[in-house]
């Protein structure tokens, strides 16, 4: 079905200098072959997807779209836009009510650049099977984070746009996981080969300890005044995970890059003081959530008989002191109180 398939080949055949350098850097940092993995399975991506999902779920929706755009559906939209770059729902009317049924995979068919002429072949999954339906574009709600002019039927998410950073984070996280999964043990130095009769009692005590404490004779004293007695007692040596420092640095920097690419201020993910977090919420809502919600509203308005409006004021309600100060300054400057209240966010704007 290519090139009209929803799934596209992400592997790059002609590798550039940046790709080669990234692979070499990761391989040298961890050693061995380049690890396999997916950035979608990292905590950084889940943190961003969760922030977007909860932000959309918290939206106050206008009355004419509230029954259709439920919190659970909006949460699914927010997550899909970050992780996959798009989401698609079949529009159905049952008992006089509109329902949006999510589709897990689909193909887009058509030879005309006008989107309204396209056909969508959807796979609708159920617990005991699935069915495939083909419907016109007017019968689906197709929301995209962004798209390329060469493939306007396919959404492109931030993880695809920032593909190199996604690959780097995936590789580093995979390598760290491999390091953490390495066998661990404690090695106890022993005279000769450890089978001498002089160490038999000690070996028996260690086997019986099972993680407890064993009182053993000091080896320094056991050798008496012999000239070759050890300068110190036996000491246990631990072997196990010991990742290079460069992996931890790369994980932090790559994670920050992915968080920034997903439009989430870092102060909302990492530990920060209250002032920084309140400012981060304001930036997140006004600089990322509201613009993307308008893309969702535009698609809903085009496909459904509704003009949805989203209010995300609850996300930065903790900043009421700052907004009240802004309101007071605008009123003191001569602005109408109602207009100032809307601009400062104390009340929903018109």
Query: Which structural category fits the helices and strands?
Result: alpha+beta
How does the overall form come out from the CA principal axes? extended
Give me the side-by-side strand order of the main sheet: 3-2-7
Helix content: 40-55%
The radius of gyration is: 30 Å
Mean pLDDT: 80
Number of helices: 11
| Largest sheet report | 3 strands, antiparallel
- What is the total number of structural domains? 3
Tell me the distance between the termini. Answer: 46 Å
Instruction: List the secondary-structure elements in sequence, H or E.
Output: HHEHEEEEEEEEHHEHHEHHEHH
Number of strands: 12
Uncertain regions spanning at least 5 consecutive residues: 1-35
Strand content: 15-25%
What does this protein look like?
This protein has 350 residues and is α+β, with helices and mostly antiparallel strands. It has three domains: 17-177 and 247-311, no CATH class; 185-239, no CATH class; 318-350. 42% of the residues lie in helices and 17% in strands. Helix 1 (17-30) runs parallel beside helix 5, helix 2 runs parallel beside helix 8 (245-261) and helix 10 packs antiparallel against helix 11 (337-344). 25% of the residues are buried.
């Amino acid at each position: 079905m290519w090139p009209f398939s929803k799934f596209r080949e992400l592997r790059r055949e002609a590798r550039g200098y940046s790709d080669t350098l990234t692979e070499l850097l990761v391989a040298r940092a961890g050693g061995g072959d380049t690890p396999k993995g997916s950035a979608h399975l990292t905590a950084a991506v889940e943190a961003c997807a969760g922030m977007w999902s909860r932000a959309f779920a918290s939206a106050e929706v206008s009355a004419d779209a509230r029954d259709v755009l439920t919190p659970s559906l909006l949460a699914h939209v927010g997550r899909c836009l970050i992780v996959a770059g798009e989401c698609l729902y079949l529009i159905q009317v049952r008992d006089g009510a509109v329902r949006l049924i999510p589709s897990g995979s689909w193909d887009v068919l058509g030879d005309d650049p006008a989107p309204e002429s396209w056909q969508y072949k959807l796979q609708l999954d159920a617990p005991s099977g699935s069915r495939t339906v083909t419907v016109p574009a007017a019968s689906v709600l197709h929301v995209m984070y962004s798209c390329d002019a060469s493939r306007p039927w396919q959404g492109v998410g931030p993880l695809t746009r920032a593909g190199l950073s996604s690959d780097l984070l995936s590789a580093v996280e995979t390598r760290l996981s491999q390091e953490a999964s390495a066998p661990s043990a404690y090695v106890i130095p022993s005279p000769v080969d450890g089978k001498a009769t002089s160490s038999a009692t000690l070996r028996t005590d260690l086997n019986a300890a099972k993680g407890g404490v064993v009182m053993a004779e000091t080896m320094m004293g056991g050798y008496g005044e012999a000239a070759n007695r050890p300068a110190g007692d036996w000491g246990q040596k631990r072997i196990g995970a010991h990742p290079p420092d460069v992996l931890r640095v790369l994980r932090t920097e790559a994670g920050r890059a992915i968080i920034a690419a997903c439009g989430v201020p870092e102060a909302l993910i990492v530990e920060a003081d209250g002032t920084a977090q309140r400012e981060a919420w304001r930036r997140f809502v006004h600089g990322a959530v509201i613009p993307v919600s308008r893309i969702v509203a535009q698609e809903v308005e085009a496909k459904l008989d509704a003009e949805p409006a989203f209010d995300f004021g609850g996300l930065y309600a903790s900043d009421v002191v700052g907004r009240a100060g802004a309101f007071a300054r605008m009123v003191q400057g001569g602005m109408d109180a109602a207009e100032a209240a809307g601009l400062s966010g104390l009340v929903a704007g018109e």
